[in-house]
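Researcher: Next sequence.
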Amino acid sequence: MMSIVSLALWRGSQWQAANNTGTVQDFAIGFMNGRDLMPTPALYFTDVGDGSHVTAEFTPILRAYITSDYQETAILRGAIDTPAIWEQDLAALSDSTTWNLTRGPSTGRYTIEKASR
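Model: Next structure:
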């Protein structure tokens, strides 16, 4: 039996999937990498009725942390125990941006600021 599900990017970072299969379905929205045959579900909807739709919003937040607890290229396997010094909504950034990371000479604190043109 063929399932007909339509998926569309809707209103910026929102995704909407419609169930047009004629029966109740479970929906999952996930991410793929180049090694897997199927996406890894990140959000799961159960018992979506025929003619119904589900909407999910993806807000990618980029955060910067400064710590000496990790080595370069280390894989992070848990929460970072350092507060973020900076965060930005990736959807609000232009395709190409340049940022300056500076360390205050008297405080030793790091800051990130958008580079001037």
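Model: The chain has no helices and nine strands. The chain has two domains: 5-57, 61-114.
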